[in-house]
Design brief:
22% strand; 40% helix; alpha/beta; 9-stranded mixed sheet
């Protein structure tokens, strides 16, 4: 096996998050599906962006958030994702490199602009995402370096990547390289609506290629088309090495073979914004695995990061996560 250069390499949609507070009337007036991620075209993106109030723009994207969290924890991390050769693309590249992540994907030189996700946070802390993929759809297998994947202990893939067809090819190429090199493949199901679009393909992936699966309660019940969490848990058992299933305030459940670990959620005084909670949980969990922690401790670290991220606006941490984890674990 080749020498390990990275603990985790993530592949996903490189997106700049445009984060703003909104009321339920805004969601309703614009015909948005509250709490969901919806793909939109250029015209819709410009309309919503123009109607939004003041916003904060930061580099984001599901897998990128996870990888940035891992780097904050001190893990060796790399990221693969496509931005355009424009101002937002430069912002994304600068942000993720400044976080300590290796990012070398060549920018797209063409008409498409860097992807953006308008995240509307309502007073109940629910987030509604309207996403314009832009340059993301041009990520292809040629952007996946064989040497980086083969030298990564875990390759982390986001379910959202299944929307652009060429990105799907990149996804599958990375999984095959990782398998051939004896590495682990991790998948986040990302969103229940994403699961509905690609259920058959996701089931095939989970059973044939994925070692570590991340999903929340809605996503895992949607994947197996069952009505309750316990039934979904029984379905996923044995389909991959590890399934880390999050349940919001009820914490998380980790299934590995016959073992089931139930981990309570961390206490959060004030839930401000749930954006990035699942991404942060995955970062903490993978960090625990990378340093040899058991599954229960890894899930606890995931919960610590999720609690931190939902206590403020935005999907990137405002704390030194390594210090926070050390403090919480004692």
């Amino acid at each position: 096996m080749a020498e390990t250069q990275y603990d985790v390499t993530g592949i996903g949609n490189a997106i700049v998050d445009v984060l703003t507070q909104a009321d339920d009337a805004f969601i309703s007036d614009h015909g948005l599906e509250k709490g969901a991620m919806t793909l939109i075209d250029t015209e819709t993106a410009e309309k919503i962006y123009g109607d939004m109030g003041s916003a904060v723009e930061v580099s984001g994207g599901s897998a990128a958030n996870t990888i940035a969290g891992l780097a904050n924890l001190g893990a060796r991390a790399a990221y693969i994702g496509k931005v355009a050769k424009d101002q937002l693309g430069e912002v994304f590249a600068h942000d993720i490199r400044a976080a300590g992540v290796n990012f070398d994907t060549p920018p797209l030189a063409g008409d498409a602009t860097t992807a953006r996700s308008m995240i509307l946070v309502t007073p109940d802390a629910e987030r509604t995402m309207q996403t314009y993929l832009g340059a993301c759809v041009e990520l292809g297998p040629e952007d996946v370096p064989d040497d980086v994947i083969a030298a990564s202990e875990v390759v982390y893939l986001e379910g959202y990547l299944y929307d652009p067809p060429r990105a799907k090819e990149a996804f599958l190429k990375a999984a095959k390289i990782a398998e051939a090199a004896g590495r682990k493949v991790a998948l986040s199901l990302s969103d229940p609506f994403c699961v509905e679009r690609y259920r058959a393909e996701f089931l095939e992936l989970v059973e044939g290629h994925v070692n570590i699966l991340f999903a929340n309660e809605d996503e895992i019940t949607s994947l197996y088309q069952v009505e309750n969490f316990d039934d979904a848990l029984q379905h996923v058992r044995g389909h991959c090495d590890i399934a880390a299933l999050t349940r919001s305030a009820q914490g998380s459940v980790v299934v590995a073979g016959d073992a089931v670990h139930v981990v309570d959620a961390e206490t959060v005084t004030n839930v401000v914004d749930t954006t990035g909670a699942g991404d942060s949980y995955a970062a903490g969990f993978l960090y625990g695995l990378s340093r040899g922690d058991n599954l229960a401790t890894s899930a606890r670290i995931g919960g610590i990061l999720a609690a931190e991220i939902i206590s403020h606006y935005g999907a990137r941490s405002e704390s030194n996560l390594k210090e926070l984890v050390a403090q919480k674990l004692g």
